[in-house]
Amino acid sequence: MSDVTLNTIQDQANQVESAFAEQKSALAANPSAKGVEELRVAFLGRKGQVTSIMEQMRNISKDDRPEAGKIINKTRSKIESAIEELKAEAEEFLIQQKLDQAPIDISLPVQSSGAKGSLHPVTLMRRVLLKEFRKLGFTVYDGPEVDLDLYNFSSLNFKDDHPARDMQDTFFVKDFDKTVLRTHTSNIQIHALMNQQPPLRVVSPGRTYRCDSDLTHTPMFHQIECLVVDQNISMGDMKGVIDTFLKAIFGDDLETRLRPSYFPFVEPGGEVDLQCVSCRGKGCRICSQTGWLEIGGLGMIHPNVFEAVGVDSERYTGFAFGFGIDRIAMLRYGLQDLRQLFEGNQQFLGQFPIQP
Ligand code: DAH
């Protein structure tokens, strides 16, 4: 025999809800995590009020059971979400109480730690590099780090299905069509040439991004791009610029060498190696016994790039190169692990000077 009806269940649910509402408002005056927990146990715990309505399910007729279940579940989820809200309120109340008790005196002088501060090695290296480029008559050109595929790839002669695109493990920007975190500073070649007619002599340092992380790669790294466009510019001019600034940084007695390589935006393209700073060409662990260290990519601007930006490739020639600033810093300062640069360890960073 079923002695409990749907009406009874509904009445009890209503009673529980109003009892809960009453206790909830009592708690609101002085919310605490302990009070909320007690409330939860009193209503949702094993011997709680909601649980005791549930226990009556077995005395209700089979036909009415699904409906009774719905009524009880509705009450339970109302109480559950109210408890969650109360928990958050109690936490906030506690924080506010602490803030009120111990107001922060912003006029209190800070105790000096005695630390003098220093420049980050990448900043240091960037400043040293720019100083050398300024001496050679370059101006600094700034370009965007979040850029369109148009500037980062397609105008630089990366065809849609070009295998060279695979060389770049690119971060694409979600929900923005054809937008990337630039994979190299070469995007400024396009920005600079679209904004400025040749003759042009610019250098552009900045952050670049690729999905890469190990001893010698970090997902964010720094490059410096150099671009010269004028009449009668030759590879000899390029070698002259590269030699001059590498010697200024690493000293006069280290050799550099150019070696052919492929990049879609230059023809001919190449890479520059510096005689190993550690063994001076004899061969050691740092240079993998080759005597040489790879510094960056270079080449003469490809006619397709000139065409993409509307510069007459019959009249003008130019060169560009792009080097890793972090890598140069690593070699110049003898660092073992590139990731050290981005870990924010003060002991490591404090070794560098305040001025370049
Ligand atoms: N952007 C190339 C890279 O990140 C490096 C590079 C190669 C830059 C050749 C250049 C260049 O300007 O001419 O791998």
Concise description?
The chain has eleven helices and nine strands. The chain is an alpha+beta fold. A seven-stranded mixed beta sheet has the order 1-4-5-9-8-7-6, with helices on both faces. Strands 2-3 form a two-stranded antiparallel sheet.
Main attributes of the structure:
356 residues; alpha+beta; BirA Bifunctional Protein, domain 2; 2 domains; two-stranded antiparallel ribbon; elongated; Phe-tRNA-synth_IIc_asu; Phenylalanine--tRNA ligase alpha subunit; aa-tRNA-synth_II/BPL/LPL; aminoacyl-trna synthetase; ATP binding
Fold and architecture overview:
The structure is a single chain. This protein is α+β, with helices and mostly antiparallel strands. The protein folds into 2 domains: 6-101, no CATH class; 121-349, Bira Bifunctional Protein, Domain 2 (BirA Bifunctional Protein, domain 2, 2-Layer Sandwich), CATH 3.30.930. Helix content is 40%, strand content 17%. The chain has helices at residues 6-28, 33-44, 49-54, 65-101, 121-135, 149-152, 187-195, 235-250, 303-309, 325-333, 346-349, and strands at residues 139-140, 146-148, 179-181, 200-209, 220-230, 256-260, 266-275, 292-301, 317-324. The longest helix has 37 residues, at 65-101. 30% of the residues are buried. It binds 3,4-dihydroxyphenylalanine (DAH). 3,4-dihydroxyphenylalanine is lined by residues 184, 186, 225, 263, 266, 269, 296-299, 320-322.
List the helices and strands and how they pair.
Blueprint: H1 6-28, H2 33-44, H3 49-54, H4 65-101, H5 121-135, E1 139-140, E2 146-148, H6 149-152, E3 179-181, H7 187-195, E4 200-209, E5 220-230, H8 235-250, E6 256-260, E7 266-275, E8 292-301, H9 303-309, E9 317-324, H10 325-333, H11 346-349
Parallel strand pairs: 1-4
Antiparallel strand pairs: 2-3, 4-5, 5-9, 6-7, 7-8, 8-9
Helix pairs in contact: 1-2, 1-4, 2-4, 5-8, 5-10
Bound molecules: 3,4-dihydroxyphenylalanine.
3,4-dihydroxyphenylalanine binds at residues 184, 186, 225, 263, 266, 269, 296-299, 320-322.
Enzyme class: ligase
Organism: Pseudobacteriovorax antillogorgiicola
Catalytic activity: tRNA(Phe) + L-phenylalanine + ATP = L-phenylalanyl-tRNA(Phe) + AMP + diphosphate + H(+)
